[in-house]
Amino acid sequence: MTNCSTSIEKLLAGRRNKVIVGHYGSGKTELAINLALELRRREEKVMLLDMDIVNPFFRSAEQKDQLIAQGVEVVYPQYALSGVDIPVLPAEMLRAFQQKEYRCVFDVGGDDDGAAALGRYFPEFTREPADVLFVINPFRPRSDTLEKVMELIRAIEMRARIPLTGLISNANLSEETDARHILEGRALIEQVAQETGLPIVCEAGLPKAVANLDGKYPVFPIERFLKPEWMD
Q1: How far apart are CA 60 and CA 63, in angstroms?
Q2: Residue 205 is inside which H or E element, if any?
Q3: Pairwise CA distance, residues 27 & 185, whole Å
Q4: Burial level of 225, CB count in 10 A (0-12/13-18/19+)?
Q5: Structure pTM?
Q6: Could you give phi then psi for residue 51, rounded to 5 degrees?
Q7: Mind listing the pLDDT tens digit for each residue in 116-147?
């Protein structure tokens, strides 16, 4: 796994529970997987909770064998890997709030429909607030303008009933991405930060894309785990 820059130590510290939200295609699941593995390098007990009850593809539970092999516990809906679309979350999700020796990463379904799953745990998140991080890829059609991003943020916060605490820039065009794309996408991310008052927690990307950034924001080099077979 790529060694993470010490500049994101604040992200890794923070609150015990990390919630990753964002539009479908933003890369939130990749971020959730990488964050869980990076935390595992520093912590004895880490749990990744797949709360995506919307999208049956590209979900963190698909990587459960690799995650478990690296010491990350994985909790996911019973039907997540079966191809059956039944939006049911297991009672085991409550372990994230009960077993406080764990650092937990929640991978939440895209858009406001997915965020509704968070609303089920409103009492738990009220008792113990989490870092709720919104992932933005400004090269996706539904998050390519300030108006679209703000509409999505308002919808997610309303359905989840918990406020966002930070933004993660994941500006990318898949394998074609380089530093120029991340810098190009930064303009929109900074507009969102100014509009919401939320901090830009980090700029994420494949190592080759983030290697030559200017250091304005913390950098999170990530490994890609989810991709269709035709990209191999």
Answers
A1: 6
A2: strand 200-205
A3: 14
A4: middle
A5: 0.89
A6: -105, 20
A7: 888 889 999 999 999 999 999 999 998 999 99
Report pLDDT for 61. 75
Computed over its alpha carbons, how large is the radius of gyration of the chain? 16
Q: What are phi and psi of 81, to 5 degrees?
A: -110, 15
Q: Is the dihedral of CA 28, 23, 53, 55 positive or negative?
A: negative
Q: How many residues does the chain have?
A: 232
Residue 67, classed as helix, strand or coil, is helix
The first and second tokens of residue 60, run together, are 């963190």
Query: Considering only CA atoms, which of 16, 3, 6, 2 is closest in space to residue 131?
Result: 16
Q: What is the pLDDT of residues 157-185, one digit of tens each?
A: 998 999 999 999 999 998 889 999 999 99
Alpha carbons 192 and 199: distance in angstroms, whole number: 9
Q: Which residues contact 14 (CB under 8 A, 6 or more apart)?
A: 131
38, 186, 220 from 4: Cα distances, Å: 7, 20, 6
